[in-house]
Amino acid sequence: MASQSIEHGAGSPPPKSSAHTWKETALGALRGVGQVDFQASLWCSLVILVALWVAGWEIGLFATIGAVVATLTARLLAVSHDSVTQGLMTYCGVLGGIAMVVYLGNHPSTYVMAVCAAVTCTLVTATLGTLLTPFGLRAFTGPFCLVSLVMVLGAPSFERVWHGTPESAVTPATPKSPYVSWTDLWQGFFSNFSQIFFVETWYVGLIMLAGLFLAGWRVGLFAVLGSVVGILTAWALGAPAALIGEGIYGYNAVLTSLAFGVVLLRATAWNFAYTVLAAAATTALTASLSVLFEKFGSHTFTWPFNIATWALLAAVPFLSRITLLADDS
Amino acid sequence: MASQSIEHGAGSPPPKSSAHTWKETALGALRGVGQVDFQASLWCSLVILVALWVAGWEIGLFATIGAVVATLTARLLAVSHDSVTQGLMTYCGVLGGIAMVVYLGNHPSTYVMAVCAAVTCTLVTATLGTLLTPFGLRAFTGPFCLVSLVMVLGAPSFERVWHGTPESAVTPATPKSPYVSWTDLWQGFFSNFSQIFFVETWYVGLIMLAGLFLAGWRVGLFAVLGSVVGILTAWALGAPAALIGEGIYGYNAVLTSLAFGVVLLRATAWNFAYTVLAAAATTALTASLSVLFEKFGSHTFTWPFNIATWALLAAVPFLSRITLLADDS
Amino acid sequence: MASQSIEHGAGSPPPKSSAHTWKETALGALRGVGQVDFQASLWCSLVILVALWVAGWEIGLFATIGAVVATLTARLLAVSHDSVTQGLMTYCGVLGGIAMVVYLGNHPSTYVMAVCAAVTCTLVTATLGTLLTPFGLRAFTGPFCLVSLVMVLGAPSFERVWHGTPESAVTPATPKSPYVSWTDLWQGFFSNFSQIFFVETWYVGLIMLAGLFLAGWRVGLFAVLGSVVGILTAWALGAPAALIGEGIYGYNAVLTSLAFGVVLLRATAWNFAYTVLAAAATTALTASLSVLFEKFGSHTFTWPFNIATWALLAAVPFLSRITLLADDS
């Protein structure tokens, strides 16, 4: 999913299964943290991982468990060497691990569930590889969304897994006022980066943004663009200011902006406009999907990013004005 | 989607982006009105457009906004010349524009939303082109259904967009009696044509039917067939008579009958039977989907037509008895 | 779907429509009963059919109606000879027929609905053939799940079809205690086989298991494995003991185990482990899907089996360790 990943074809079945060293596997697990934001850079991954531990030891620990287990699963099942070492089989496990502790609470059974979630994330990453490649699409964080959807829906049915809704999963009643304060604005701007990892703390987002700039100034700038477009769109539509301040309306736009701006499209003015439009569409979609998932007791996760990006990427072959980076080679 | 569209392959990415004249673009916008019913005929489109303005200036205006914006979007993004001039990128925008005023009410913000809906309809038409072409399917009105689903679900979350449920979107409590009166019958027969465009007035449907006969006697007859099969199926199953009279149970059957009877299948007895079966299946599906969409606060739109037609069209390669028009060439 | 079906390619459109004798058609209808469990064996099919009549004349009769109508539909529409005679167009109709009497009750209209369900199951089997073959997947019982979903959702809207929820469709309030008794265990073990056909009676399951062993010791053993894995997983997660005893948590695992163990994968240790994991994942998924379908008034049917098997089968091309039987040829 990183720019590197385009050449080595994360989207096609492995030509051969090759030897892994443990060091490569460990680097794959680390890179998986950055790959959530499409970055294979080790420094970027390290900074984001530090930010997760800063957010709280539980977040950090479950992210680490997810990364390690997902990577080991991929290695054990002999997924292609490059996919594993670039973290492409890992990033969904990172998010899946965090989702478990956020939505199930920190109980012994949650550790088991985090392991299960990470294993399943790796498998579903392969599934979406098969299902989406024929359309020129990639899995993005879809596997994490699917696995977490299923786990969060099913958990309350099982006595040994479910110990009541944890505090971290309670959405407090938010005031619906659309009048955005300065605090909402700047905190929202940073929370948009951390909310990708279920964290609502602005300085965690700040550290993550620093990590993204480490991966490249272009990466950092498109992350900033996504955050700004997300806030502006949500404000223009009249979304509740409190949710804007918590990053709820912007984290998907950040991912969409990174996807189109850095990974998928060439650097042209038309493509830049398309990226802005995609980030805005993602923000609007966030409300629809929140309503939908609330109806049957699940959560939005990064569905808006995935659905908007899949839809707008699949449209590109018909739109001569928009040009894919992949067509360069 | 019209019979013309089969040859010039609306389903494949454009071979070249060619010059458009403004006149061609305008004709494309007009043809988009007829393409809702699969017709590229200018006269047919004109008559249906008149019928929409007869139904009310708001319906007419928003349909026109949708047609113009969707067509301009396609031209701006350099969609292939023929798709634009035949109205194939326009018809979903027409329906999307009307849906906005029906479900959001006539407010200044609704004009902005209609523009957004039309732009998105054009993009999602391209998306479904990519996703469905490998299966030999076409987008039909799926893009409109998807965009309207998302907009109607999300709108109440946004203060600046949502001004309460408008009168036009309120479904009055209908008596559940299945005993169909003569008035239900003949009004339903005509409303089945207008209900495709969210209009419940029988004489609007009558004008539209005249437009369809202008496009060809075969077109008119299959529209009539769809309407009759829809009413008979709904009556046989015991649907509420009031809904039959409002065209709720028949408008999808009209579209399915036009799709299979005029656009997709050759003129054989077996294919005729398959068309009738498809129209009946569409009617039955209407109830299931209405229940489903009501559960999470959306609407049926033309989902039953799309889903039934996709399913039964995808089945054809396995059924030697049923023969596609496309295989002639 | 049986092991035989792999060679003759149930997944590709018919090369030619060939003559059917009535005897072949009749055998196809009978084989359809066994094909629910992936078996084309006539003896196995006969034993399962007997078990269905033992479960009650209504179950037996509607299964028979479904089998006959689905097979005749396929023959009438000239589906390829082998698909029909191997029962591959029939098995969904068998389940669809039973579902109608269970969820609508035994009324005259239900016979009409069973015929409609069987016809639609055959058509949707063809649909999924077209949609899934490009991904290397097969329809499994997906057509039955889709058709029953639609019928159960839509039925209450139609006066002439709906006569109130029948006793057979009422789920009694189950105690949520996860403490499994010995009776729960052994009754659940056998009910897991019968629950595939909506039957909760342990000795019906016992007869069916005997039928599976008739089709081959390997078939019987993987059915046993699925049932055991289903019970163990449900117990470990803390599912309500009463539901385990009724086979609710295990019937999908039986199908998944048969699919991966007998039909899809080669006999290696890694593949065996993957089959166990798939059966466990299916069981966990059962809870999520039950919650989901309950929300909008439908039922779980064999969705967990289909979704888990599609997902894990689509993942295989990326997992060098797991090897498909189909790659042998």
From TrEMBL, chains A, B, C:
Family: Belongs to the urea transporter family.
Domain of life: Bacteria
Residue segments, region Disordered: 1-20
Transmembrane portions of the chain: 40-72, 84-105, 111-132, 193-214, 221-242, 248-265, 272-293, 305-326
Membrane topology label: Multi-pass membrane protein
Keywords linked to the UniProt accession: Cell membrane, Membrane, Transmembrane, Transmembrane helix
Annotated compartments: Cell membrane
Record protein name field: Urea transporter
Organism: Streptomyces lienomycini
Record PANTHER family: UREA TRANSPORTER
Statement: the UniProt record of this protein carries the keyword Membrane: yes
InterPro entries noted in UniProt: Ammonium/urea_transptr, Urea_transporter
Main location group: membrane
